[in-house]
């Protein structure tokens, strides 16, 4: 229904990949501010790879957890020295 309404009224649907990357950015911020770990929502392998790369660009570590199709990223924080 949502997709049909978007097409009828010309509203652009949000890009799911960009939404997943935004969720990762917010998770990175949360881990930096509060510590601990942050679980992201399940994503396909390609999106998880992009999330991993984003986390690494921020000098942090993450791991994938769970089983397909519910595999998700856990942001762990900075690597141990």
Q: Work out the number of β strands.
A: 3
| Structural class by secondary-structure content | alpha+beta
User: Could you say which overall geometry the principal axes of the C-alpha atoms support?
Assistant: elongated
Distance between the termini: 50 Å
- Average the pLDDT over all residues and give the rounded result: 90
Q: Treating each run of at least 4 consecutive H or I residues as one helix, how many helices?
A: 3
Unreliable spans are none
Radius of gyration: 15 Å
Largest sheet: 3 strands, antiparallel
In quaternary terms, these chains amount to single chain
Helix content: 40-55%
Beta-strand share of residues: 15-25%
- What is the element string, with H for helices and E for strands? HHEHEE
Q: Within the largest sheet, what's the order of strands?
A: 1-3-2
What does the model show?
It is a single chain. It is elongated, with a radius of gyration of 15 Å. The protein is built from 3 helices and 3 strands. 17% of the residues are buried. The model has no long low-confidence stretch (mean pLDDT 90). It is 49% helix and 16% strand. Helix 2 (16-34) runs parallel beside helix 3. A 3-stranded antiparallel beta sheet has the order 1-3-2. It is an alpha+beta fold and 81 residues long. Strand 2 (61-65) and strand 3 (72-77) form a beta hairpin.
């Amino acid at each position: 229904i949502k997709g049909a309404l978007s097409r009828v009224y010309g509203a652009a649907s949000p890009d799911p990949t960009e939404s997943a990357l935004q969720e990762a950015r917010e998770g990175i911020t949360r881990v930096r501010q509060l510590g601990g770990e942050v679980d992201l929502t399940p994503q396909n392998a390609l999106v998880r790879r992009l999330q991993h790369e984003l986390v690494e660009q921020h000098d942090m570590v993450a791991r994938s957890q769970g089983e397909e199709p519910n595999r998700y990223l856990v942001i762990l924080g900075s690597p141990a020295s």
